[in-house]
Records
---
Amino acid sequence: MRLLRSDTLTETRAAPIAAALFIAILLGAPPALAEAKEASGPVAPRKPGVWSLTSENDMFGSGTDRNYSNGVRIEHVSGADNVHPGLKWVAARLPWIDVERTDLRQGFGLSHAIFTPEDITLTDPNPLDRPYAGWLSFSSTVAATDLEKGVQDTLQVNLGIVGPSAGGEFVQNNWHNMLGIPGAQGWDHQLKDEPGVEIIAQRLQRLDKFDLPFGLETDFGGHAGFALGNVRTYVNTGLTARIGWDLDSGFGPPRIRPALAGAGEFIPGTAEVPWGGYAFIGVDGRAIARDMFLDGNLWRDSARVEDRRALVGDLQAGIAVHYRDVQVSFTWVSRTEQFAYQDGPQQFGAVSISLAH
């Protein structure tokens, strides 16, 4: 979704922002963190519930208004082991989960995403380009985290609607009108209404961290997963590296999937060590069998691209910082071409704020 910008500004580069913020933390925060860790003994961490708000927009990347144009998600995950008894009963019978040392969480979320072609001024969109689409979904999430083994398993089910009832045209054009920007003209050709289902599973495996000077820590991790449904079907895998302080506070900031995403939780800072934060860089590759936003409706005739890429990759880098019960993060993403007509990779950014309670 296009946001207000000057006529001379043709591209927004967000990666330097992340670097500048992390340098500021590097210069100002480490001494206090290191001293607090040395002065204080081990403190049993709080593992409370967390509310998160995430906004993803190409304004934070290439400054364009095309492809994956905008996404918003609000979600809540419960405190550790504050889950339905039935979930505990099921987890206790899964051989790969040790319920005695695994933190179980459950959550829910509401997401909205908008996809547009390259030229939104055309009343009749280019048939070679991706179709207009909106995607409104409700999700239910279950996460099992074993901090001793550095493993987090996540299962998420998304149920929603693709098409006019998702409100993509309403959200985009009303936002443009508020900013005095012309609205997108081709929404009459968007994907038709179709119920959407996605089942997404992911395992994150974090390796042992290494201690560095100035109280810094670094770690590496891998992930693998899949999605199954009429909206998207794919398998994915990738790697992430992090450097910072208090890496045990979480597995990564919240994102809107498909993405390199944690389960939406983090362990807040304490009175002795209120601050924590890290920079990260990662890659994710997906082998895609279906993407409704490129392949079109499954059960109805609709616009579609004829040459979707079967393999798509994401490169991401960013920072996450928490102070006591609040965490903020920024992630810059570069996504490879998803279809032949697309003019190069897409760049976008994700901003999130999380509040533990």
---
Amino acid sequence: MWFQKIFNVLSPLSTLLQTRDLDILAGVNSINDAKNLIQELRKNDSIMEYLIKEVNIFIKENYGFEFSEFKTIRIRRKKKMSNEENVDECIKDPIEKFKVETVLGSLDIILSNLNQYFNDTTIGVMKDLALFSKKRIIEIKKNHKSLPDDSFVVFCKVYGTFVDQETLKAEFLKFCNVYELFEKTTILPEYFHVSDKSDTESISSFEEETDQEQEFELPKRKQINPINIGSLKTIFKVFQNGGLGNTFPSLDAALRISLTIPLSSASTERSFSKLKIIKSRLRTTMSQARLEDLMVISCEQDIVDEMDHEEILHKFAANSITLTKYLI
């Protein structure tokens, strides 16, 4: 029951931080909320009363279980040397002992780890990285004053050897102004030359007829991909496709550094986590060579999507007459 209460706080945070396309600012807020909730549990003096009440309810609802009360352990008397003045004060009450060693002990470990992994510097860098998102870029383009005055301060403190704060801030504001323009040029438009109103009307009428004929099949260009607003990868692709590295050198360095930080490159770690599942489940059911091939396919999804599946199928079917019969 106690650990379930802790998991109710930490599980949503863990799930959010493992999201493929994480909104970093939302992650920062969730981390701070989790810290505050754990600290509130730590300061709550009536936590043991709550736990005892929950245990009693559980015992009443489940008659098949037997529970023994905490036993009072006799305190061992240690021999005191002549020059010793301090005496160890042991906890006699078993409930108080459980509270100190288990309840408060677990909370102290959790808080210590949260503060270790998400200290002020880490949180500061995360907040600065949150600016490298489509949502924030569009927001700042509409109103330059919405960019915080202390933006990139912590990031430049950590990586000041490569990036200057004022230069980075100025280049980022200029990039916000041209981002949507370069984003549109990453894919060719449906029409290059729409000269006048009549052409526009004819094209729109043609599109309406096509939509009626293909009611359930939309063109790929019209499909909107639900890209989260916190993706660094999308911003960097637009930046590189536009060849903006020489135009904004400080921003180029900042984006490259950001993509090497575990927070933004966690997709690789997720791939290896998936590999663990594949290895544990499939290890005893297939040969090593096939297992390795499946692991590569699982990791390199981008490359697999670009391959010609029909050609692969034909090569596989050519291995035997039976496969050719059923696959081709």
